[in-house]
Amino acid sequence: MTGTETAVVLGTAGAEPGPLARALGASSRVHPERTDRCAIVALDLSGEPGDEEYELLGELADLATPTALVMTRVDRYPDWPGTAARLRDAVDPGRRLAVFAVSSTGGGVDDLADWCATADTDASVPVRPPTPVTRLGPAVRPAPLASGPSRADRLTGLRAGVAAARTDALTAARESLQSLAVRADRVCSGLRPADVDAYIGWVTGAVAAVETTIDARLADRLDKVRSVASAGLPDEAAVDVRPVPAVVSAPAPPERRPSAEDAVVLLFGVSAGFGAGRVLVAPMVQWAGLGWAGAVLTAATGLAVAAWIVGVRRTAATRTALRKWTSDIVVLRRTALEHRLIARIGLTEAGVGRAPWNRRRPNL
């Protein structure tokens, strides 16, 4: 039986002890056993050691098991030598344990296997930190250690939950506002100038309702992610971080003001109206012999046709202006909503993720 077959690889999920154990041909368990010839404690360079690592080293010290510290996935961290030195000072201040570095591609595994084959039972055994001496004073109840999943599992679940919440919130915001824009375009097709104020109020209220719905939906998702990631941790992990909504200057509603274009349209409308009036009424006037009354009828018909042409042009211009205003307000409010959602997600992730990193032994 080789030295690696009687070795055990220990560590949190973030350090990936399983792949290291398979590369060595060793076993991987949560806790060491007395039958283990030597032990390898995998350390995650992405953060500081926590209660799990200290408890593992304490159990190995009680069993007097030769132990090596292994910094995993060092190729992902350009400054890994400094980080590894800091981690070793934290968990092995007496520098009694052997230290190795292993890359994601398997570099350094052979040296670690050689150590397993010749592990020294005297020189590389961890020492359990002494119990700190406490001066007598007012009785203070110590805070209970956090229970539940390990730090690496909490952070992994937090990242996955936050990513899913981000995708769900942004997708829902885009789809809801795009659906509103399509519906508003259909309403504009049959809009009359007298309905402009009602239309503007409806669009503004609908956009605000979408924002409220998306905010509430995201809050519910983040509450679920937070409750899972902070299970068993102090109450500060449950604080809701809500950024102040950004103030967006929405475009002003369109206003119809007299312009040179309106004068040209009016001139064309009057000309076309009187021309149509003569074409339609003149033959009847000559046939009936109405005289001056026929001229009045021709003028009235021309004015009616001119008013209709000008009204149609005015309605079309109003609809075009409202479509542009709707497009502008939907784009601006959607951009502001997405920025606000991302900011809230980021602050919540930072606030909740801080609690697992604070799971440190009070005496170290």
What structural category do the secondary elements indicate?
alpha/beta
Round the mean pLDDT to the nearest integer and report it: 75
Instruction: Write down the domain tally.
Output: 3
The 3D shape can be described as rod-shaped
Element-by-element helix/strand order: EHEEHEHEHHHHH
Give the low-pLDDT segments.
Answer: 132-137, 139-147, 360-364
Count of DSSP E strands?
A: 5
Q: What's the main sheet like? A: 5 strands, parallel
Number of distinct helices: 8
Q: What percent of residues are in strands?
A: 5-15%
Portion in helices: 55-70%
Can you tell me about this structure?
The protein is of the alpha/beta class. The chain folds into three domains: 7-117, P-loop containing nucleotide triphosphate hydrolases (Rossmann fold), CATH 3.40.50; 151-254 and 326-357, no CATH class; 260-311. It is built from eight helices and five strands. The protein has helices at 17-24, 51-63, 80-91, 109-117, 151-189, 196-229, 260-288, 292-357; strands spanning 7-10, 27-28, 38-43, 67-72, 98-102. A five-stranded parallel beta sheet has the order 2-1-3-4-5, with helices on both faces. α1 (17-24) links the parallel β1 and β2 (27-28). α5 packs antiparallel against α8. The model is unreliable at 132-137, 139-147 and 360-364 (pLDDT under 50). The chain crosses the membrane at residues 263-281, 287-310. Keywords: Membrane, Transmembrane, Transmembrane helix. Residues 126-152 are annotated as: Disordered.
